[in-house]
Specification:
This protein is mainly beta and 183 residues long. The chain has one domain (35-182): Immunoglobulin-like, CATH 2.60.40. It contains 1 helix and 11 strands. The protein has one helix spanning 2-20; strands spanning 35-42, 68-79, 87-94, 101-107, 115-116, 120-121, 125-126, 132-138, 141-142, 151-159, 176-182. Strands 1, 2, 4, 5, 7, 9 and 10 form a 7-stranded antiparallel sheet that branches. Strands 6-8-3-11 form a 4-stranded antiparallel sheet, with no helix packed on it.
Length: 183
């Protein structure tokens, strides 16, 4: 009987030892890409049309038209590297704006289905050939895709009163706005 108990105890001991000594392992490597993508989405026309209004009475100047919510939305996806500064969206105007006229652009506050640290509007900016910041503080995030996601762009015109004598009527179609997601 003692021998039977001894055999049972030894069997349990060997079985337990055999199970705890059998294991395997391998490494797991996780790769997260650095991402910086920008897109402009529109629900409407491919062209933003801006105009100034005629004066209502002799002796008055051109009237600044109401702001034009263009229907264009800035969408972006961003994944920063460790220690990398936050990103921003810059806008620049290619072509020649009419003399005496300022083209202004404002990106709205973020709105949409995205997640992460989406950017902050830099307010209304005058566009020129030099890039100007329109959205700042973009961290690792995505805005969501398409209209109603990201930042709605609003354009407006102003007459530069100091250069009013240079204003000429016409249809100026040679302008293009370029958006860049940068650090």
């Amino acid at each position: 009987m003692k021998r039977g108990i001894l055999v049972i105890l030894l069997s349990i001991l060997f079985a337990t030892t055999a199970r705890t000594q059998s294991s395997q392992s391998h490494q797991v490597r996780i790769v997260i890409p650095k991402v910086a993508l920008i897109d402009v989405e529109s629900a409407g026309s491919a062209t933003v049309v801006l105009s100034l209004g005629k004066p209502n009475e002799a002796g008055h100047g051109l009237q600044a038209a109401a702001q034009n919510a263009s229907g264009y939305w800035i969408n972006y996806s961003s994944v920063l590297a460790s220690g990398q500064p936050e990103r921003k969206v810059m806008a620049s105007l290619s072509g020649t704006a009419p003399e005496g006229i300022k083209v202004l652009l404002e990106a709205s506050s973020y709105s949409g289905e995205g997640k992460g640290k989406n950017g902050i509007s830099s307010g209304k900016k005058i566009l020129s050939g030099e890039p100007t910041e329109i959205i700042s503080n973009i961290g690792s995030c995505y805005t969501g895709n398409g209209v109603n996601n990201g930042h709605l762009l609003t354009f407006s015109l102003e007459v530069d009163e100091e250069k009013y004598e240079a204003v000429r009527h016409g249809d100026f179609e040679n302008l293009r706005v370029t958006y860049t997601l940068t650090e």
